[in-house]
Structure formats: structure tokens, C-alpha cells
Amino acid sequence: MKKWLCVFTLVTIFAAGTAFADHPDGFGIGVQFGGGGSWSGGGFGASGIALSLKIPSVPVFWTINLDIFNDAFGLGVAGDYFLIDKVLVTDIKLHWYLGLGGGVDIWFGDTLGLGASARLPIGLSWQPLDLLDVYLQIVPNIGVAILPDFHFPYGGYGGNLGIRIWL
Questions:
Q1: Which of 43, 67, 85, 106 could form a disulfide with 97 if both were Cys (CB 3.0 to 4.6 A apart)?
Q2: CA 146, CA 44: separation in Å to the nearest integer?
Q3: Per-residue pLDDT reduced to its tens digit, 21-80
Q4: Are 73 and 107 in contact (CB under 8 A)?
């Protein structure tokens, strides 16, 4: 019974999330900068620069990350679904959002690394113009390292500042 209650709750949250969406409906493209840290030996959340994409009719905000370190670099893809995206201050079009997502990262250095994570983006979004979106977010995450060694839990936190243009 508890499993069905959890499933029902998640379906309700996801269905209700579309009623709260306040971002434009078109195609969004931008760039975000950030950093982060880790716990338990993890490296998720340490995104240096990322391409941000929002495809019309797909309720997911995508990022393609590039992480550059002294002795390694990494590539990653993440997708976040906004459960809540509401206006916080109407006069200046300041929104807040809470999402749920996932990501996959691969990094190259002395050894090959591969991992996957669940993400919880929480942020503020400001739309000074209808076609412009500036956002600041924190993204705690937890995941599993697959290579070079299996390790669970593996996690971290990230922070991003981004700008997106809506076409």
C-alpha cells in the first residue's frame, strides 16, 4: 500500500507541476557558469561551464556540462523537470523554482570515470524581458560512481549562475 501511495503522490506532483510553469513556452538556449563540491569522495555538481537548453513541448531543462580541472576534464548531461515554477515578485518578474532531475557524467584523467546522479535544483529566475531569463540555483545531488570503482552513495552540490534567451 505504501508503494502505491508513493507512486500516486509522485504522479500528482508531476501532473500539478505543469500548472505552475511560468517560463516561456518557446525554445530556450543559454549558458551557465558554476562550481561545487562533493562529499563521500564524489565529484557531481562541479560544473564549470554548461550549455543550457529548453526544447518546446518537452518539460525538461537540459544542460551539457564541461568541467576542466588541472589534470582532468569531464563532460556531462543533466535534465531537470520543474515541479514548482512560480512568480515570487510580480512587479519585477522574479520566479522561484524547485525541480527534480538526473545526470550522467564522464571524466578523463589518469583514469576514466563514469557516474550518474539524481539532482534537486532550487533557484531564482528573473525575466527582465520576455525573451531573457537570468537564474541562480543550487543543486544538491546524490548518485553512484560506476568507474573506475563502484561507489555508492556518491554526491555533491553545485551552484550555477546562468542566462537564457527565449526564441
A1: 85
A2: 13
A3: 456 678 999 999 998 887 765 554 455 899 999 999 899 999 999 988 788 889 999 999
A4: yes
Residues written for the chain: 167
Of 121, 125, 126, 133, give the one whose Cα is nearest residue 158.
121
Q: Grid cell 543550487 — which residue?
A: 138
| Amino acid, single-letter form, for residue 95 | H
Q: Which amino acid is at 33?
A: F
